[in-house]
TrEMBL record:
Residue ranges of domain NADPH-dependent FMN reductase-like in the record: 5-142
Gene Ontology CC terms: cytosol
Record-linked InterPro entries: Flavoprotein-like_sf, FMN_Rdtase-like_dom, NAD(P)H-dep_reductase
Pfam assignment, any one: FMN_red
GO molecular function, one term: FMN binding
Protein name in the entry: NAD(P)H-dependent FMN reductase
């Protein structure tokens, strides 16, 4: 039987990104019959403009989405919004509908109390426009993230439970 494949996309390009740590931790919580990869190369995707042809990086991004059974996006908030690099990459998928009906989990993490809620709300709107498959349990905001990770993994028990719940909800969406 084909294993369920999950694609992780981090909205942060930083090497020691807290959002990428969350994605990696979520990947480690998936059942062993899942496969998980984090997309590398968001920063190689050119600025989107309608009519431009896909570059190799764009094709790689779209192919990674197409080959995944579900997608998890974990992003920081910049200036109350979605990081431009992430929004730009998603804009490339509008015309080809790569995310259409794709089950998603959407996570924002922030060192602030707000948990990146503005970015989360904005990203959810974009993913609605892109026709992704999600429900009211598909979104998670993680405030005060710096105290919840150590040595490259999430250590906070409550957050680990929330990530497990995201995995379970995603599996249900894949099966629905
Ligand atoms: C230019 C800039 C703008 C930021 N704006 C926000 C913001 O609006 N809301 C917020 O919660 N955090 C904001 N932050 C803080 C980020 O959430 C923080 O740097 C976070 O660690 C970035 O995520 P990462 O660790 O995954 O790279 C901002 C950081 C920078 C550098």
């Amino acid at each position: 039987m084909k294993r369920i494949h999950i694609l992780g996309i981090s909205g942060s390009l930083r090497a020691d990104s807290t959002n990428t740590v969350i994605l990696k931790t979520l990947g480690s919580l998936l059942p062993s019959d899942f496969t998980f990869e984090i997309f590398e190369g968001l920063d190689e995707i050119p600025h989107f403009s309608p009519g431009l042809f896909d570059t190799e990086a764009v094709t790689r991004f779209k192919t990674a989405i197409q080959q995944a059974d579900a997608v998890v996006i974990c992003t920081p908030e910049y200036a109350f919004g979605v990081p431009g690099t992430l929004k730009n990459a998603l804009d490339w998928t509008v015309g080809t509908g790569d995310l259409s009906d794709k089950p998603v989990s959407v996570i924002s993490a922030s060192p602030l109390n707000s948990g990146g809620n503005n970015a989360l709300a904005s990203l959810l709107l974009t993913l609605t426009a892109l026709g992704t498959r999600k429900n009211e349990a598909s979104a998670l905001s993680i405030p005060n993230v710096k105290g919840k990770i150590a040595d490259g993994v999430v250590t906070d028990a409550h957050t680990l439970g929330e990530l497990r719940a995201q995995c379970a909800n995603l599996l249900n969406l894949v099966k629905s």
